[in-house]
Structure formats: C-alpha cells, structure tokens
C-alpha cells in the first residue's frame, strides 16, 4: 500500500500532507510502541515531497528508538556487553548505551553534569541527559502525567533532539519540560557570568576587592580598576605613581615659554622670564654703564691667583712669574712644583731623593748618615748606641751582634743573647753521667747523693770505694766488698766436711776467691763418695748497661785440663753448667781454649735493670773415660747497680 501511493505535481497539498502523515504513522506503529513520540515527530512533517518525508521521518524515529534502547539498557543493566556485534542496528544503540554509562558515572562521582567532554556532540547530549536524569531520580519529586490519547507523556530532551536555540559558545542543559543554555567559555578576569548567560563587569571598588592604599581612591573600569591619589596637585606640578607632586620644569617641557630676548628661569610650581644681559668672555666684565666689556686685572683682585709668585696682567688673562723650583702651567695658569728627583734621577743624591715644594732633600738608607755636603752618605757606627745585649761589631752600613760562650743570638730580633740550655741539647743526655743542671751561660753536673763523687772533669761520676776509705759498716767477722754506688758486707762459712783455704780478709777485691776444700774423715764413707771437691765464692759488680749491643764477658773459670789431649787414652775433658741464679736467663757459660787449656767464660747476654743481686751457682765437672771424676762448685755473687756508671 505504501509503495502504491503517488502524487502528481498538481496534487492537492492537503491530500499530500494527509497521505504522508498516514504513511509515517503506519511505519512507526509497525516499528515502535511509543505512540506519544510518534505523534510529536510525525506532525513535524510539512508540505514536502511525501517520499522525503517518509524516509527522513522513519529514519529519525528508528535512530531515536535504537538510542533509547541503548539508554534503557545502560539504566537497567548498567552494562553494554551484549552489544558486541557492529551492525547498522547496534551501532547507534551501543553508542548511546556507552555515553549514558559515562553520564551515570559522572553523576555517581559528583562530577557536574555539564562537564565538557570531547566525545562528540550527540554523545555529550546523551551523557548529560543520563547524568541529569540520575540526579533527579535521587530526589523526591512529583510526577506529572499527561495523556496523549490513552498513553502517558514523558519529558522531551530538547538538547538530545537538537531542538534548543543555544548560541555558539553555549552548552544546552536539559531541564524538566524545558532546557537552558550555559556559556562554555569563561568571561575572563574582571567579569562574572549572569543568570541570562551574559558577562557582566565586576565593580572591584564597590565589592572592596581592590588593593588601593589609604591615600588612593578606587575608580572602576571595564574588567579592572584604577587607584587615583586623593591629594590633587596644583598647577605647575605633576603627580607620580605614588601620589607625590613633582615640579614641572616649564623651561624644558614647553617650547619657548618666554619671548625672544628673554631667558626662562624655572621656579617651584612656575617659571619667570628675564631679559638677556651682555655676556662678557673670560677675563672681562661689564663696565659701570653695562654697555661694553673691559679687561679684569686679576693681579689686583682679592684672590691671589699666583699664590706668592709674581703676577703680570694681560688682556683677558694674566701670567705668573714663578719662583725657582716652579714652572708655569699655561692651561691651569698656576705655578706648579718641579720634581727635581724625577727630572734628574741618581744625580742629586747618593742614596735617596725626596721632593719638596720648590726644592728637594737627600736622605740615606739604614746604616748611613747624611754627610756635611747634604748629598753623600757616610757609614753610621751603630755600636755606639749599644744595640746588642752582649758584643757588637760595626760593619759598613750595618752591624753584627755576637754572644759569649754559653749564649746564642735570638732568632726574633737578632740582637738579644739567650742562654743555651746545654742539658736540653740532643747530646744533653751524654754531657753528664748522672744529671745535668743548666745555669746562665753554662751548666753543671751532679751525681747520686751516696756512693758517688763528681770527677775532676766535672761531668763524670766516680764510684766511692767505701771499703778502701773505711766508710763502710761491716763487722770484724765480715768482709767488705765494694760495688758500684755502695758496698756489701759478706761472710762465708764452709759446710761440714769442708775446710776454708786462706784467712778472712777485711776487704775483698774483684779478683779474690774464697775456697772451701773437701776434708773427710777416713771413716766417713759418704763424704769420701761425694764428687764435689771444692766450693768457691767469687764476686763481681756490674752496671746497668745503657746500650747493650753485644754479650759482656764477666767471669773466667780457668782449668788445668789440656784441650788437645787424647780423651780415649786417659785424658780428661771438662763441662761447665749454670745450676742456679740465672735471673731472666741473662747469663750463659761457654767453653773456650786459651793457651791449650779449657776455660769457662761466663757472659751476660741480656741487659738487667738494677739494682739486682743474684748468686750464679756454676758447676765445673771433670770427665774421663769412666764418667765423672769429680766437680767443683763456683758461686759467683753478682751485684748489678741501678746506674750505668
């Protein structure tokens, strides 16, 4: 039926309108159940060719239906996952569904519904419509019902349908039963947007948001304001940005304020004009009548132009007759001093030349004095003023200080003699044997308070032999043995079965030996079998070696055993041992051959810090082919002094 309809050019327009309306209505009824929307859209058809009306009307209704389907799916299901197929029918539906979800998300996150998104015009309309609809659903609002035939009427989204009359630069916002237009671009600084979507100037002066100071008043301008000073400047002044009144120099700012033949003179707030006067050159002045210029006699003026020199007046000038030592400067017209020292270097003075006004004077360097002629320099004998603390020797142009023995010249002034502390010198520890005492210009040595005396050289300490001088305290039954720095009282008793050889002496020397020989009774078998034949005592006094670099041989045990005898043919051998008293293993004993006989040498192999007293018990055993044939015991009494001397 639709295809059979046709219209001729002469057909009645009313009939054409009626047929087109019926066609559109039928097409819509077949495709949609929204009869109210059908009524609204179908009556848009005007007098045009019915096929165009048919095509455009139906396409528009179909697109609206597909878009509405997508919007409803977004509102009901909250997702558009079922619209994956990209067909002609689902393309518009999916676009409206996605854009509606975008508007709902904006409303849920508190983003304004009119937020401008770069998603296209139709998508923006759908997004705003769903955002606004979601906001209205969250509020309790009365629902109006309107009948269209027998169906309910819903709000028409003029923004979505493009039925708004918003201007360029404005955004359409749908409202219940209507719409409103909102400006998209801001008005800019100094303007505000009014309810009718226009930009209105902000009066900063009235609202009080200006920054004018108390000395200024605010004046509103379009989009801004000005601060004008409250104080107004009078005529002849100009006001700066801070409100200060500054005088105007009318003579400079205006072109010729005075008449010809007058001179402009600026004053505060104004200016004055004066007649020109005759201007005489330098060196001239007006006569009393003021009609001509006459010469000035500078030589007779109150100023002394030549300052003590001769003055000659000239027309319009003058000239000075300078004194000796001065030259006239024609430019500055003054007499200037001649620097003779610079003009005649090295020819006026022997040493130093100093310029003075009109002359010069000579002076000498340190160590010299000016000669009678005032130009040459003679040597100055500085020693006459006694600059040195001890000895002084004059040299040409200077002097030299010397010090006596025991003093040295100060490094600070080179004139003062300072005492030399000989005890503090690197060799001070070896100057005196014991202690060094510094004195002005010299030093002296001292020794321990007891046991020593100062030698003749005044530096070394000599041991006092108390045993020899009788200053000991030994009894009659004791023997005195002198040690370094003191003495020892010794007494010896031979053990049983031994007898002493020799008498007890009151004084023992280092080479003395006290010997006890074995003496047995014939019936004393134990005494006879004892292998010790003799027990001897010897004595030695040692210092505390200050520098111990090699072993020191201190005791020699000489034997009568030949060293080159045949041991297997009955000859003897000898063995030396230290049995007791080897403090800190500071001693050892070695066997040596001297003059064909065995000799035992006791050595000190380590330093001992005194005072130390020990008894080295030495054993000297005689050996033969049957074994030990006997031994001799030697007790060496060692006394180590606390001093090295």
Automatic annotation (TrEMBL):
Residues 295-336, 379-418, 419-462 form the EGF-like domain. Gene3D superfamilies: Laminin (2.10.25.10). GO terms for biological process: epithelial cell differentiation; extracellular matrix organization. The keyword Translocase does not apply. Keywords: Calcium, Disulfide bond, EGF-like domain, Extracellular matrix, Glycoprotein, Repeat, Secreted, Signal. It is found in: Secreted, Extracellular space, Extracellular matrix. GO terms for molecular function: calcium ion binding; peptidase activator activity. Belongs to the fibulin family. Incorporated into fibronectin-containing matrix fibers. May play a role in cell adhesion and migration along protein fibers within the extracellular matrix (ECM). Could be important for certain developmental processes and contribute to the supramolecular organization of ECM architecture, in particular to those of basement membranes. This is Fibulin-1. The gene is FBLN1.
